[in-house]
């Protein structure tokens, strides 16, 4: 009687257990469900509304100036503009007042903000409140105070050397009193623009590095700080320019005739010409904005140095 061999366990080494699933090679890889892109219709609608808000009044104004009922298209309003009485004088006066206001505002704001940021940061809230104060003072209140001072001057300064200076600031050819008033009105915008620029750079480190190299304060301000604040300076200049070109209340009540007052003066007798002047002034403002924006961008100066050629140094 031969012994029956014991049953041996099947060799499962290297075999894959059957789990009821298909082999890995034949299974399709699970993919994450694709997210549908969000509809961007609302973005286009917002841009369309914004474009219509700015362009429709401008186009309507231009059509009003060139379309004459019964005659068709005519550019007579623009051709007569340059020959209009007072146009060139008022435009040059407004541009001169704007340039002087920009210069005075920056000369006051830049040193003050640098001194506060370097010397006494605790005074920053005080300076901010003082610079923002013209926003809460109505221009009519400001011009009332200026008128009171101008009336007080001849009575008390007529026998002093300051009387001629008092008359010179009211010269109609270039009223310095308007420059002073516009500087006060533009101070909040200049402060905000410069303060944002100084927050973006490390003013103490730049000044300390320049001073440690032997640079004087004029060199530090003109060659170190101002190039880093170029965009902020351009923004402050453009805001001041727009404010001066559009300001009417102070100049009208003080009896001067810059560009905005001249437009209102001729609007009663020459309606089309006044609208044409408004369209032209808007285009001039845009061109000046482009010039200031180009002046505010740093030129792309890229210096490429050869990196593959090693330099030999002599050990001393």
Description:
- It is built from 13 helices and two strands.
- With 316 residues, it is mainly α.
- The protein has a domain at 85-269: MetI-like (MetI-like fold, Orthogonal Bundle).
- The protein has a two-stranded antiparallel sheet with strand order 1-2.
- A hairpin with a 3-residue loop joins β1 (67-68) and β2.
- The longest helix is centred in the first third of the chain and has 32 residues, at 87-118.
- It is globular and about 75 Å long.
- Rg from C-alpha positions? 35 Å
* SSE topology string: HEEHHHHHHHHHHHH
Q: What average pLDDT do the residues reach?
A: 79
Q: Could you tell me the number of beta strands?
A: 2
Arrangement of strands in the largest sheet? 1-2
Q: How much β-strand is present in the residues?
A: under 5%
Largest sheet: 2 strands, antiparallel
CATH architecture tag of the domain at 85-269: Orthogonal Bundle
Helix segment tally = 13
Helix content: 55-70%
**Which regions are unreliable across 5 or more consecutive residues at pLDDT < 50?**
11-17, 300-316
- Structural class of the helices, strands and pairings? mainly alpha
Any idea what the shape is? Answer: globular
CATH top-level class of the domain at 85-269: Mainly Alpha
The CATH topology annotation of the domain at 85-269 reads as MetI-like fold
Region (Disordered): 1-37
Membrane topology: Multi-pass membrane protein
Subcellular location: Cell inner membrane; Cell membrane
Keywords: Cell inner membrane, Cell membrane, Membrane, Transmembrane, Transmembrane helix, Transport
């Amino acid at each position: 009687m031969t012994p029956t061999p014991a049953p041996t366990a099947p060799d499962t080494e290297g075999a894959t257990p059957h789990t009821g699933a298909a082999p890995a090679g034949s299974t399709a890889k699970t993919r994450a469900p694709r997210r549908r892109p969000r509809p961007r219709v609302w973005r286009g609608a917002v841009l369309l509304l914004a474009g219509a808000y700015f362009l429709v009044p401008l186009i309507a104004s231009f059509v009003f100036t060139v379309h004459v009922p019964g005659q068709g298209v005519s550019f007579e309003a623009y051709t007569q503009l340059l020959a209009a009485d007072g146009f060139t004088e008022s435009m040059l006066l407004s541009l001169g007042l704007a340039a002087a206001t920009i210069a005075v505002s920056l000369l006051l704001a830049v040193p003050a903000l640098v001194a506060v940021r370097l010397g006494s940061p605790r005074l920053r809230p005080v300076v901010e409140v003082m610079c923002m104060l013209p926003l809460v003072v109505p221009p009519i209140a400001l011009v009332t105070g200026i008128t009171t001072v101008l009336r007080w001057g001849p009575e008390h300064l007529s026998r002093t050397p300051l009387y001629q200076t008092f008359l010179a600031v009211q010269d109609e050819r270039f009223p310095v009193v308007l420059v002073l008033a516009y500087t006060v009105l533009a101070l909040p915008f200049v402060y905000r623009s410069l303060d944002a620029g100084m927050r973006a750079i490390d003013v103490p480190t730049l000044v300390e590095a320049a001073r440690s190299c032997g640079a004087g304060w004029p060199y530090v301000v003109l060659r170190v700080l101002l190039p880093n604040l170029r965009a902020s300076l351009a923004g402050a200049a453009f805001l001041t320019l727009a404010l001066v070109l559009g300001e009417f209340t102070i100049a009208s009540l003080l009896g001067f005739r810059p560009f905005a007052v001249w437009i209102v003066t001729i609007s009663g007798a020459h309606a089309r010409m006044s609208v044409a002047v408004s369209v032209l002034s808007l285009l001039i403002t845009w061109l000046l904005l482009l010039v200031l924006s180009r002046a505010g961008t740093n030129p792309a100066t890229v210096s490429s140095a050869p990196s593959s050629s090693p330099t030999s140094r002599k050990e001393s």
